[in-house]
Automatic annotation (TrEMBL):
Coiled coil: none annotated. The gene is ATP13A5. It is a multi-pass membrane protein. It is an enzyme of class 7 (translocase). One of its GO terms (cellular component) is late endosome membrane. This is Cation-transporting ATPase. InterPro entries: ATPase_P-typ_cation-transptr_N (IPR004014), ATPase_P-typ_cyto_dom_N (IPR023299), ATPase_P-typ_TM_dom_sf (IPR023298), ATPase_P-typ_transduc_dom_A_sf (IPR008250), ATPase_P-type_domA (IPR059000), HAD-like_sf (IPR036412), HAD_sf (IPR023214), P-type_TPase_V (IPR006544). The chain crosses the membrane at residues 34-53, 226-245, 399-423, 429-455, 862-884, 890-909, 930-952, 996-1013, 1025-1043, 1049-1072. Pfam families: Cation_ATPase, Cation_ATPase_N, E1-E2_ATPase, P5-ATPase. It comes from Crocodylus porosus. Residues 22-142 form the P5B-type ATPase N-terminal domain. One of its GO terms (molecular function) is ATP binding. It is found in: Membrane.
Length: 1134
């Protein structure tokens, strides 16, 4: 949906804010368009090309600003710092082609849902709708609100009652046709782009246009062979790019096309249940779900029955998920708000697979279509691939600034050429333009991607896949890792299960399942056997590992037999197995499930004993949550103490509860969770051991040694999470843990926050900022965000454990701010994160960081090399140009193709260093280290080039025309023909100055390629790059055979190159890359990091009152300010 704003380019211009973009209205004017056409002709198409690159300029030139209501063209601008523009044409949807009974409608509404935005978008009596399409999503013009609204989804304002009442009986055929025409087909259509379009778009890339301009100048100067070689390479590069884009287009098309023509059953008011193709579905249709292995072609909300689905494509976890019907609540709040954060348990997402359906008492499972096409969950994944978000990374911004700086140097060369023209009185206009292009190597943008391509290939070999390659470089700057779940660090369930049941309101002795004795029959056994969401697929029980281990501990078996029960929405039967304890029941039927929710921290089931009319409700979940639903007299007095005993040891603790249920099976479908989950009797605790995975501790130790913070964000118990963090050394033994407990305001008492040293810590933490760690649960985090926001950054500096976090809290804390995310999944792509690892443990984390660092360092090295390569060529050309000479055709050919191309392709092949360094590589190009490196190497190059230029003239054998007896020279006849008179490749390229400076410049390029290919600590040593080494070592000696100079002069050139290498290597490796030296310099000059994290660290280190301990602070007047109650003291030091 869009909201109004008052920003624009001129008075009276309306600007509306799309989700990530702003929109401006424009109207085409014929006079302006005619003037632009004249400009296209006069500029020979240059103006048209400029408008192609800058669509905003095209709109501003051809159109006049106007309101969105009058606009026939809109201009969209992203709201991020990149401010990218796109233009979209306003089109019309004509509904008059449909046979509509408008006169039969008393209220004149064509859509039965009066709140639908479609009703407000239809112009009457024309029956037309204005719309635009942005990134595959259609927006229609709301006449009354004067805004564009997204179409293709049901309105979120519908309540649970509305969904059932308005759409439960299906849509009429007329309404389906209207919605189908306005919303478009329910299809994720990916066009296989024609080769000519891809070729045209690639050729018009600024990089290739600049290269075409450059090659035109080279050809006019007679560099035909060189230009032909570059043209061939460009054709190969364009062909490979077009082929790759075409393959991606075909692959993506094939991936989604098979789901665009799925046969589904839909229910309509006019025709009842009928089979149709999925692309005819519209929001509001009712799907009839029967059978197994159904692929969802849309997003739909379940209104009848239940389903078990595989959401691996969305979550990255191929664990069956139970979906329940949307309740018949009669309140007016939106259905998503009614379901709080757990609305997803009612939604079937597009791209997921229905494993099993459960009919209700009123017939098969049914669902109302929520979203179609690219509005769906799968559509979002495809759109994220088609329209990736631009990465806000300093490397690319600094690269642009660097290129601008090189262009300025080119302009200086242009001025220098003008001076030569005035002094020599020679026409050098073409050469002036040629000199303008020399400092800016056109290969810079392409070369920056080579390191990413190689890194992505290496990650793929390690079973780590990526759908956003640009994030690989960003991974090289990661200094904090959040682990989403304890099970990523520990095995949640092992063979050690224990129960701690009740007897006379006190805990009995623990029953250990490893003893071999079966669990005695009773409510605890019944709860463990029935309160789960396991499914039976192909004869095998599948589901959450916790549920699976719990069920196996009872030695019961699970059956699927409809004859066993006449329950309304389920036919799940469980019976005692041969190894189970004797039970006075034949079996238990699970009649109804309230699935587990991370937001609610519990699940419940309603069961019936086979052959009896006795109904029971069982609940399991977080102990503190389950206890809150139990009658106080059933909860033991030592509940908190007993719970702490197990959680302090790192056990996973689940509470069980029960109550008899008097509800008849006929009314189970209408049960509301809040009605039945009350007044339970507490049964006991189920204790499971969390053993660390074998790979966990070494990985966390490696991250800690590399000074990369590890943070745990989990839904588990706080004490359990802290214990796992300690066992895995996420929290070192020497560090102290401070528990934070924040509470909402209660009456006149303001919100409070309590700081308490964790039990077991006998001394208060040191004032060192690294000596303490904060731990809190999700409720406390929410209170801090709301009432103590000024404390939040201070807490996050040392926050390590965040437990009982809901999905939205996880998103607020980490997901929205994350630069990269890894999903552990067997699939190669997941909408959950840009990286997917098929390695089922956290070993992928350091692997990704290593490759990110190697790719980042390689990108810097290639960029520095190309920058110096352009400047070296520029300086050499300036010197020769003073004598109206330039390098020869084959000299440029060897330098550009044989050396630079090979270096750029092979420099990034060096693998990542196996050990993570305790610091990150530099993340910005415009830094003192890099600028000094470039400047000093330019100085070295300038010195040797100037020295060679002037010294060669002092040699006794020097002459303006080279002697053909000196090496690989041309014949004397050809030498005389090439006497330097004019600036032309066939007439002035052969001279002793050129054959002296060319090897110096060429070998210097090889030297800097070797020097910049730094190995440890982020990449392996250069000698492990078996392809790049021969290039950098052999070529200098081969080039010596191409010089038209005496042998002794060639020896002097090699000695000069050797000295240059030694100086460059010492300066680069021992000075510029000497981290200790730079730290000392920073300390002497008082330089401090400007990052917010480091600022807070320094600020807290100077604060003698931080961290707070054994006290409670209160929010003051609801202003996110705090004051300390000096009278509050804990009774004892812990």
């Amino acid at each position: 949906m869009v909201s109004k704003g008052q920003r624009g380019r001129s008075p009276g211009l309306q600007c509306l804010l799309f989700d990530p973009q702003e929109i401006f209205g424009y109207k085409t004017q014929c006079s302006r368009k005619a003037l632009c056409i004249v400009g296209y002709i006069l500029s020979c198409g240059v103006l048209l090309l400029l408008f192609y690159w800058k669509p905003a300029w095209d709109v501003w030139a051809n159109c006049a600003p106007c309101s969105l209501q009058e606009a026939d063209l809109v201009l969209l601008r992203t709201t991020d710092e990149f401010q990218r523009y796109t233009r979209k044409k306003v089109t019309w949807i004509d509904l008059s082609t449909l046979t509509l009974s408008v006169s039969d409608k008393p209220d004149g509404l064509l859509i039965a849902d009066k709140d639908s935005s479609i009703n407000r978008a239809i112009m009457k009596p024309e029956l037309k709708v204005r719309c635009i399409q942005v990134q595959k999503i259609r927006y229609i013009w709301d006449i009354s609100a004067k805004q564009f609204h997204k179409v293709g989804s049901l309105e979120d304002s519908n309540s649970c009652y509305d969904v059932h009442q308005k759409f439960g009986a299906g849509l009429t055929r007329e309404e389906q046709n209207i919605r189908r025409l306005v919303c478009g087909p329910n299809a994720i259509e990916i066009e296989i782009r024609p080769i000519w379009k891809l070729l045209f778009k690639e050729i018009l890339n600024p990089f290739y246009v600049f290269q075409a301009f450059t090659l035109t100048l080279w050809i006019t100067q007679g560099y035909v062979e060189y230009s032909v070689a570059i043209i061939i390479l460009s054709i190969i590069s364009i062909s490979l790019t077009v082929f790759d884009l075409r393959q991606q287009s075909v692959k993506l098309h094939n991936l989604v096309e098979e789901h665009n023509r799925v046969q589904v059953k839909a229910f309509t008011k006019d025709e009842g249940c009928k089979t149709l193709e999925s692309h005819f579905l519209v929001p509001g249709d009712v799907l009839v779900l029967e059978g197994k292995k159904l692929s969802l072609p849309c997003d739909a909300v379940l209104i009848d029955g239940g389903c078990i689905v595989n959401e691996g494509m969305l979550t990255g976890e191929s664990i069956p998920v139970t979906k329940t019907a949307l309740p018949h609540a009669e309140n007016t709040m939106p259905w998503k708000t009614h379901s709080v954060e757990d609305y997803r348990r009612h939604v079937l997402f597009c791209g997921t697979e229905i494993i099993q359906t459960k009919p209700s008492g009123r017939g098969p499972a049914r669902a109302v279509v929520l979203q179609t096409g690219f509005n769906t969950a799968k559509g979002d994944l495809v759109r994220s691939i088609l329209y990736p978000k631009p990465m806000n990374f300093k490397l690319y911004r600094d690269a642009f600034k660097f290129i601008v700086g090189l262009a300025v140097i080119g302009v200086l060369g242009l001025i220098y050429t003008a001076c030569v023209y005035a002094y020599r009185k020679v026409n050098t206009i073409t050469m002036a333009l040629l000199l303008l292009t020399v400092p800016v190597p056109p290969a810079i943008p392409a070369a920056l991607t080579t390191a990413i391509v190689y890194a992505q290939r290496r990650l793929k070999h390690k079973k780590i896949f990526c759908i956003s390659p640009q994030r690989i470089n960003i991974c090289g700057q990661i200094n904090l890792v959040c682990f989403d779940k304890v099970r990523n660090v520990a095995r949640r369930i092992t063979s050690d299960l224990h129960t701690d049941p009740l007897a006379l309101l006190s805990f009995q002795n623990v029953h250990s399942f490893t003893s071999g004795a079966p669990l005695p029959w009773g409510p605890v056994c019944a709860a463990m056997a029935s309160c789960h969401s396991l499914v039976l697929l192909d004869g095998k029980i599948q589901g959450d590992p916790l549920d699976l281990k719990m069920f196996e501990g009872t030695n019961w078996v699970r059956l699927e037999d409809p004859s066993e029960t006449e329950g309304p929405d389920s036919c799940i039967v469980i019976k005692p197995g041969p190894n189970a304890s004797n039970a006075p029941v034949e079996g238990i039927v699970i009649l109804h499930q309230f699935p587990f929710s991370s937001a609610l921290q519990r699940m419940s089931v309603v069961t019936q004993e086979v052959g009896k009319n006795q109904y029971d409700l069982y609940m399991k979940g977080a102990p503190e949550m389950v206890a809150s639903f139990c009658r106080p007299e059933t909860v033991p007095a030592d509940f908190v103490k007993e719970l702490k005993v197990y959680t302090m040891q790192g056990f996973r603790v689940i509470a069980l509860a029960h109550k008899p249920c008097l509800q008849s099976p006929c009314g189970l479908f209408f049960l509301l969770r809040e009605d039945v989950e009350s007044g339970l009797a507490f049964l006991g605790l189920l204790i499971m051991e969390n053993r660390l995975k074998r790979e966990t501790k070494p990985v966390l130790e490696e991250l800690n040694a590399a000074r990369i913070r590890s943070v745990m964000v989990t839904g588990d118990n706080l004490q359990t999470a802290v214990t796992v963090a300690k066992n895995s050394e996420m929290i070192p033994e020497s560090s102290q843990v401070i528990l934070i407990d924040a509470k909402e305001p209660d009456g006149s008492t303001p919100a409070s926050i309590t700081w308490q040293l964790m039990e077991g810590s006998k001394t208060p933490p040191d004032r060192d900022v690294h000596s303490h760690h904060f731990a809190m649960n999700g409720k406390s985090y929410q209170v801090i965000v709301k009432h103590f926001s000024s404390l939040l950054p201070k807490i996050l500096v040392n926050g390590t454990v965040f437990a009982r976090m809901s999905p939205s809290q996880k998103s607020s804390l980490a997901l929205k701010a994350a630069h990269a995310g890894i999903s552990l999944s067997e699939q190669e792509a997941s909408v959950a994160s840009p990286f997917t690892s098929q390695i089922p443990n956290i070993e992928c984390v350091p692997e990704l960081i290593r490759e990110g660092r190697a790719a980042l360092v390689a990108s810097f090295a290639v960029f520095k090399y190309l920058t110096l390569y352009g400047l070296i060529q520029f300086i050499g050309t300036l010197l020769l140009f003073w004598q109206l000479q330039i390098f020869g055709n084959y000299q440029y050919l060897i330098e550009d193709v044989v050396i630079t191309l090979l270096v750029c392709l092979t420099m990034s092949l060096t693998h990542a260093y196996p050990k993570l360094a305790p610091y990150r590589p530099p993340g910005q190009l415009i830094s003192p280290t890099l600028l000094l490196s470039v400047v000093l190497n330019v100085c070295f190059t300038t010195t040797i080039l100037f020295g060679g230029f002037f010294l060669v003239k002092q040699q006794p054998w020097y002459s303006e025309t080279p002697d053909p007896r000196h090496g690989a020279c041309c014949s004397s006849r050809e030498g005389e023909r090439r006497r330097p008179r004019l600036l032309h490749a066939t007439e002035s390229v052969l001279s002793y100055e050129g054959t002296t400076m060319w090897p110096l410049a060429t070998i210097n390029c090889i030297i800097i390629a070797f020097v910049f290919s730094k190995g440890k600590p982020f990449r392996k040593p250069i000698y492990t790059n078996y392809i790049c080494n021969p290039v950098t070592c052999v070529l200098p000696f081969l080039f010596q055979q191409l010089l038209c100079t005496p042998t002794m002069w060639r020896v002097y050139i090699l000695i000069t190159a050797l000295v240059t290498f030694c100086v460059s290597f010492v300066v680069e490796d021992l000075i510029l890359q000497n981290r200790l030296l730079w730290l000392l310099i920073k300390k002497c000059f008082g330089f401090r990091s400007k990052s917010q994290y480091r600022k807070w660290q320094r600020k807290l280190a100077m604060d003698p009152t931080w961290p707070p301990l054994q006290r409670t602070d209160f929010a003051e007047n609801g202003k996110n300010e705090i004051y300390t109650n000096p009278a509050y003291e804990h009774g004892e030091e812990k």
